[in-house]
Design a protein that fits this description.
alpha/beta, Rossmann fold, 5 strands, single chain, about 190 residues, binds adenosine-5'-diphosphate, 5-stranded parallel β-sheet, about 15% strand
Length: about 190
């Protein structure tokens, strides 16, 4: 069984870029709920069309929608390889449901990586990216959603004892060196 890793951090923290490097080096599945929702939206599925209303407003998609998508995904046999969750969980309810789903499979998360980046850097990074939901007013709402609904996860995983915080400032390569230190130690552990 491969490693099971959760990646938390505000929008613009660089989770997506780090995730690409991580899944390559450690041969993990990259499960990005943002990517899954954008694919569903582009395919115009009922879930995708519903999700789009929230995404374009910078709001979180309702928990039950996300939880159903993730449960279906981790039930696939390829999840034995290990996975990196990127953008999920985003609420304490999602985290609790993930813990339950993994426990039902007789497994649990190995580590939760928190990527820390100061707010003023986040805004600049997001505004220069140019995705449909990267308009200033939507970015502002996404940061609000993060603080209100996702930041409490840091506490949740802190109490669970599997949280490691990483400095997310600097270049992608500099940050990846810090990430590798944590994951290599775990692999050898
Ligand atoms: P970022 O990390 O840059 O904010 P993502 O690509 O992870 O962006 O997500 C884009 C949008 O998709 C979010 O603003 C939200 O509307 C929706 N979304 C993604 N993952 C979740 C989730 N786990 N729970 C609720 N909504 C989500």
């Amino acid at each position: 069984m491969g490693m099971k890793v959760v990646f938390v951090g505000p929008p613009g923290a660089g989770k997506g870029s780090q995730a690409e490097h991580i899944v390559k080096k450690y041969n993990l599945l990259h499960l990005s709920t943002g990517d899954m929702l954008r694919a569903a939206r582009d395919a115009k599925t009922p879930v995708g069309l519903k999700a789009e209303e929230y995404m374009s407003a910078g709001k979180l998609v309702p928990d039950d929608v996300i939880i159903a998508i993730i449960k279906e995904r981790i039930a696939q046999p390829d999840s034995d390889r290990g996975f990196l969750f990127d953008g999920f969980p985003r609420t304490v309810v999602q985290a609790e449901e993930l813990d339950k789903a993994l426990a039902a499979q007789g497994t649990k998360l190995d580590v939760v990586l928190e990527l820390q980046v100061p707010e003023e850097i986040l805004f600049t990074r997001l505004a220069s990216r140019g995705r449909a939901d990267d308009k200033p007013e939507v970015i502002r709402q996404r940061l609000v959603s993060y603080h209100e609904q996702t930041a409490p996860l840091v506490d949740y995983y802190g109490k669970a004892g599997n949280l490691v915080s990483i400095d997310g400032t600097g270049t992608i390569d500099e940050v990846f060196v810090r990430v590798e230190k944590v994951l290599d130690a775990l692999n050898e552990g």
